[in-house]
Amino acid sequence: MRTSVAPCKTILHTLNARASDGDTLRIAQGTYSENLSINVRVTLEGGYEASGWTRDLGTYETIRDGSAGAVMDLP
To answer: Half-sphere exposure of residue 21, counting CA atoms within 13 Å on the CB side?
Structure first.
C-alpha cells in the first residue's frame, strides 16, 4: 500500500488500486491531466508538498485539469 512515505505517482492508480470507501487521498502539488472515474466515496485533498507532506493551498498548488479528454465521473 502506498502512503505519504511511498506515494503513488498518479491519482488514477491510487483510486483503482488502493482507495476504499471513506479514504482521504492527499495529493501533492503539481498538475494532473488524468481522466478520473471515481467509484468509491473518497475525499481528494490537494495542496501538499511531496517530500514532507506539509499542506499549504497557496504555496503547493494542485491542479486537476482533465485534459486527457474524458469527463470526470463521480459516484
So the answer is: 1
Per residue in 22-65, pLDDT (tens digit) is 999 999 999 988 888 888 999 999 999 988 899 999 999 999 88
Q: If DSSP codes are grouped into helix, strand and coil, which group holds residue 15? A: helix
Amino acid of residue 14: T
The span from the CA of 2 to the CA of 49, in Å, is 16
- Which residues are CB-neighbours of 16 under 8 A, at least 6 positions away? none
Rounded to whole angstroms, how far apart are CA atoms 43 and 22? 7
- Say how far apart CA 55 and CA 45 lie, in whole Å: 9
- Structure-block grid coordinates of residue 59: 504555496
Q: Which residues have CB under 8 Å from 6's CB, separation 6+?
A: none
Q: Which residue has the cell 502506498?
A: 2
